[in-house]
Amino acid sequence: MHNLLRASALLALAAPLLVSAAPSLTDVLANHPNLTQLNQLLTTNMPDFLKNLQNTPEPFTFIAPNDHAFIRVPYTDVLGQAFNNKDYEGDITNILNYHVLPGAHPTSSMNKNGSFQFLSTSLGNQNWSAVTGGQKIGAVLQGNNPPQLVFTSGLSTRSSVVDQDVEFDGGIIQIIDAFAIPPMPFVYTADQYNLAFTAQSILSFLGAVYSQPSNLSLATTLNTTNDLTIFAPANIAMELVSGTLETLSPATLNQILSYHILPNGPVYSADFINNTQLPTLLGGNSSVSLTFTFNSYFVNSARVIASDILIKNGVLHILDNVLAPNSTAVNINPMTYTQQPALPTTFSGSQSFNSSAAPFTTFVPNFYISASPSSDTGAAATGSGGAGGFGGFGTGTGSSSSAVASATKKGKSAAGGSVRHVAGESRWLGIGLGMVAGVALGGCLVL
Ligand SMILES: *[C@@H]1O[C@H](CO)[C@@H](O)[C@H](O)[C@H]1NC(C)=O
Ligand SMILES: *[C@@H]1O[C@H](CO)[C@@H](O)[C@H](O)[C@H]1NC(C)=O
Ligand SMILES: *[C@@H]1O[C@H](CO)[C@@H](O)[C@H](O)[C@H]1NC(C)=O
Ligand SMILES: *[C@@H]1O[C@H](CO)[C@@H](O)[C@H](O)[C@H]1NC(C)=O
Ligand SMILES: *[C@@H]1O[C@H](CO)[C@@H](O)[C@H](O)[C@H]1NC(C)=O
Ligand SMILES: *[C@@H]1O[C@H](CO)[C@@H](O)[C@H](O)[C@H]1NC(C)=O
Ligand SMILES: *[C@@H]1O[C@H](CO)[C@@H](O)[C@H](O)[C@H]1NC(C)=O
Ligand SMILES: *[C@@H]1O[C@H](CO)[C@@H](O)[C@H](O)[C@H]1NC(C)=O
Ligand SMILES: *[C@@H]1O[C@H](CO)[C@@H](O)[C@H](O)[C@H]1NC(C)=O
């Protein structure tokens, strides 16, 4: 008894000693061989940001990009522009805030079963995040031997932790090999996703939203509403029922599209619960049902084929069928991978799918790349040459040849480029998909 008491008294003494024995944040940054760029950025250009981190009273996790991550910056539009502009107090502060997670998140706190957690970050600036409680970042353990911690962020970016659980006196540093990218607006994300994952492109859904008369304000709603969940059917699903969709009145099409959107807080895959009803933007008592069966989640009878693509104001998941509010029966046939469409299909078996023939894609809005998502709403579209490689893309106004040039000139890795004309706009998008890009791992793009 006496010994036990003494032992716990010793432990109580030892605990604070151990904590204070951890080096300070500035010491770790200054001494780690692979954080020289980050250390220089913070000490030279962002001393106030560093001071704020040091003075944070609560424990936090700093996802620290290593020197290799800095090499990739110019190949990523969002980061490249922010660093090019040397916007330390604006965009770069917001980007780094996305790397600061309240609370200590050691590798041991991650789910052991390979499922994702969506952790809050310190990115709360309304120009960058419209997610209550701070924009989220995905965290997952992948592989064995030993399991590796991976963070997933905007544009399905993966950042692997290469040096894990580095302690400092205010929390934990997880050192990553690529910057996390703050989730971008829906339009920009849908367009990027189209380039990276053609088979799951959702441009047809995006085009349908933008085909609406402006008094049906779904496009505006998607830009301006916080905390959304979007279940976007893939092009191929839209194509399957295009004969029906294209003949609907704008009001009915609007009802169908609204039925794919949930207004009450982002529902990440980690929040999916079998056999639940989720209210939709269509209003009334409309809801979709979520069912886990045959190793997949289904929304009504549409399978979720890609999940957790983070956007500025929530999250989007991709479906293999269009949902219909008047046809909500959940009849999931275990015998087929693809379920019967909920809307009448005019598609005949003799046709072959061709997702570039998907409906509404001519309505896809014009957009341009900007580091700060807030300025994306401006009307003037100034083209900029994008990085061809690493899954990036380039846009250019003017003739097709100059667009191709701007998309391909930036790197040897730009191969297989193609040019897409956005109808109704005198604008060409030059697309250079890099050879190294487009590697789909768990729905994520390896940058
Ligand atoms: C620094 O990076 C090199 C090369 O990637 C790696 O071999 C080394 O283990 C890293 N050092 C630390 C302390 O993480
Ligand atoms: C994985 O583990 C977490 C934490 O224990 C749990 O909440 C979650 O439901 C599990 N997911 C699956 C798919 O088993
Ligand atoms: C948001 O962006 C606008 C325009 O760039 C800027 O004036 C404003 O200060 C920004 N707001 C915040 C909270 O950073
Ligand atoms: C939207 O405007 C069109 C004409 O452009 C009109 O026919 C329609 O009734 C309007 N819809 C609503 C919901 O106001
Ligand atoms: C929504 O935002 C995007 C940029 O993210 C912009 O291109 C588009 O025009 C906006 N749409 C509306 C209806 O405001
Ligand atoms: C669903 O049925 C109601 C009542 O028949 C009709 O008013 C509405 O337009 C239908 N909605 C869709 C999306 O078909
Ligand atoms: C999910 O719910 C459905 C419908 O209630 C049920 O048939 C199914 O067995 C449940 N799946 C799991 C994995 O519990
Ligand atoms: C929603 O359901 C409630 C309860 O069943 C009912 O009283 C109400 O009229 C319904 N509202 C609409 C818009 O259908
Ligand atoms: C797919 O559709 C596009 C646009 O309609 C057309 O240009 C292309 O030739 C089609 N591809 C195939 C393989 O049919």
From TrEMBL:
Residues 1-21 form the signal peptide. Residues 22-180, 189-323 form the FAS1 domain. This is FAS1 domain-containing protein. GO terms for biological process: macroautophagy. It comes from the Eukaryota. The keyword Signal applies. Keywords: Signal. It holds the Pfam family Fasciclin. InterPro entries: Adhesion/Biosynth-related, FAS1_dom_sf, FAS1_domain.
